[in-house]
Amino acid sequence: MKRILLSACSLMLISSCVGTPSPPLSATQSQKNPLVRAQNSSLKQVEQLVSLQRMEKNMATLTGETKFSALSRIPERGTRNGRELTRQFLTQYLESLDYKVERHEYRRYGANIIARLTASEPTDEWIIIGAHMDSVRNAGADDNGSGSTAVLEAATILPQLSGRKVNIMFAWFDEEELGLIGSRYLARRLKNEGLKISSVHTIDMMGWDGDKDKTVELARPDGILWDYYNMVNKTHKLNLPLDRTNTGQSDHVAFHNEGFHSLNLSEEYTSHDSTPHYHRSTDTYNTINFDFLVTGTQLLVAVVGDLSLKVPPPINVQMIPHNQFPSRERHFHNYEDISL
After folding, report:
1. What DSSP designation does 192 have?
2. Which of 136, 173, 267, 319 shows the smallest number of beta carbons within 10 Å?
3. CA–CA distance, 77 with 84 (Å, rounded to integer)
């Protein structure tokens, strides 16, 4: 894989795309992607392309360990400046993959980042993969550099899966820490647009595995999603322990509340095998379990890949109410709650 060269992007260039949706990435454009090998029609398990080294590099940038240009480093992702630098990095990375990046600016100082990948054949159906890009006023490695890195990896490799029958939208939500602000605005906008969204997959905190059992928590999986994740987990031979919960207070709730089938992937937050650095200044790059982050990302990519290929769900899907499963409250914070 060739080394990604990211050049500095001025605020003027970024602001020029405010409020103007860009066309999605076409199948032809994806083949031009300088980071993508030629599409292989025999590729069945796209999750095998998840790269530990690439994810480590992107996490290092998001947490300020390394610069993303000669002059720019992301010191934290809670202040206006830190979040704007984060948007610059995301935009540069996605444009290097030949995506047309949309900046969804929903209020002053609040803006989501969106990239679209069209299916191999025309369709009006969409799958959303998303994570919140902001943190409290710290490096935010686990919360939520881990989720943001996972979505970047999905956006990098899913164009290589040929035969996709569903469009995919990649989203990085702003202002989650203040109460799901960015994802609420985006979910409402997409509903008002009448976008046909079959499922929404968010990731929030996937960087801690204290007992090293690789358990992935699936919070509030709507519709077929719990059974579908279990099916793909077996058919792709990932064989990860999956734990179903009723935990909310993350971006999946914003989409569920607008009527979209959604779920959230995370470490075992509900079962308390979760980072002890949650919302602390010690939530840094060197606390991340990258092997666990890779396996969680592989599960996400495998599921979305199969959904995009229209692989049928298992028979006899059981619709069990979320309230029959355990939950643990997540707490929203002002960005200023954590000082460096």
Report:
1. H
2. 319
3. 8
Q: Burial code of 99-110, b = ≥16 C-beta within 10 A, e = fewer?
A: bbbbbbbbeeeb
- In angstroms, the Cα distances linking 168 to 124, 160, 264 are 11, 13, 17
Q: What is the pLDDT of residues 3-45, one digit of tens each?
A: 333 333 333 333 333 333 334 444 334 444 434 443 443 456 9
Place of tokens 């890195």: 149
Residue range 56-314 forms a domain whose CATH class is alpha beta
The model scores a pTM over 0.90: no
Q: Nearest Cα to 76, choosing from 129, 217, 84?
A: 84
Please provide residue 244's backbone torsions phi and psi, each rounded to the nearest 5 degrees.
-90, 135
Distances (CA, A) of 74 to 58, 71, 145, 305: 12, 10, 12, 31
2 by Cβ neighbours in 10 Å (0-12 / 13-18 / 19+) ranks as: exposed
Backbone Cα Rg of the chain: 18
Tokens for 19, please give them: 């409020």
